[in-house]
Design a protein that fits this description.
This protein is an alpha/beta fold. The chain has one domain: Rossmann fold, CATH 3.40.50. The chain contains six helices and six strands. The strands form three sheets. The chain has a two-stranded parallel ribbon with strand order 1-2. The longest helix has 14 residues. The radius of gyration is 15 Å and the shape is globular.
């Protein structure tokens, strides 16, 4: 989660993501960050009516301190909603032999959903911890979780998920 993307709606998931990352590190599970890395003039801002944010090289594009990457983590830059679109994420995952992804972040109905569906279509197993993603529109968050469950994507709470890592 990056500084420009943090809002009141997502404060509650930060401790859950931090907990999940800590448990994954204990088990030596690779941690990969997919971070927005945009240019001021990117068409995404105009097309969806949002102000410029997470601009490459700015303070706002940095990961928040509570979730800061370690030297052993991988950071993949992305310009669109899906972490796969136009990035080297798929190549990175395949090089590491990763077959199952745990997707967290914001917004549930945007970046999370796009990344999950692209991962599925690329052949990955995907888990979406329900308390590690958020939206400023709570109804959208709940709807997308139900939608994913309908397609058999597991959406456990983080405390339940870490028991199976």
């Amino acid at each position: 989660m990056q500084k420009d993307n943090v809002g009141r709606f997502c404060q509650g998931i930060i401790p859950n993501i931090k907990f999940l990352i800590e448990k994954a590190r204990e088990k030596e599970i690779p941690i990969i960050y997919a971070c927005d890395s945009r240019y001021r003039e990117d068409s995404l801002f105009r097309r969806v009516g949002m102000k410029s944010h997470t601009i490459r090289g700015t303070e706002g594009a940095k990961v928040i301190e509570e979730l800061s990457p370690k030297a052993t983590d991988v950071v993949v830059e992305k310009r669109m909603l899906s972490a796969f679109f136009g990035s080297d994420l798929d190549f990175t995952l395949r090089e590491k032999g990763i077959k199952t992804l745990i997707v967290t972040g914001i917004r549930t109905e945007g970046c999370v959903l796009k990344t999950v569906l692209d991962a599925f279509e690329l052949g990955y197993e995907v888990i979406v911890p329900s308390d590690c993603c958020a939206s400023p529109i709570p109804e959208a968050h709940e709807f997308i979780l139900r939608y994913l469950e309908g397609f058999k994507f597991p959406t456990p709470a983080s405390k339940e998920l870490v028991k199976t890592l």
